[in-house]
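Entry for guanosine-5'-monophosphate complex. Fields follow.
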Amino acid sequence: MAYDSGNIFAKILRGEIPSVKVYEDEHALAFMDVMPQADGHTLVIPKENAETIFDLSPEGAAHLIQLTQKIARAVKAGMAAEGITLMQFNGAAAGQTVPHIHFHILPRWEGVALRRHGGGMENADKLKGFADRIQAALG
Ligand code: 5GP
């Protein structure tokens, strides 16, 4: 299927709608999920127009997973998480709601369940506070 350049993450990449950014380079962006399933829930997306993992170039895929590893390390340290869950959905049938490939980075603590996917919007100041902690851990 053709890439839909009107999707919400494409708009974030073009700066048409705001996001709480954690990291950006030439190829990718990491930012806070506005409906977090855990405190510190971070998304990593490529700048390449790709709906699913199958649409990414090999170079884009390599950069995306390397950056996901780097950001996940900072999320774990910055949020003092005991573990990290990574999630990545391809296609509506798999649970993908935004048609631009992304990795979810979810900090985990013993006994703390994930909140509902697509649940409530988080307060922007709280998201900024988590982003600051993750950025500090990135150095
Ligand atoms: P998916 O279901 O496609 O794997 O995940 C999409 C994610 O994007 C969800 O976790 C949802 O909370 C998040 N999301 C949806 N709209 C926005 C938005 O406008 N800004 C941000 N930062 N996250 C969004």
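NOTE: The first helix runs from residue 8 to 13.
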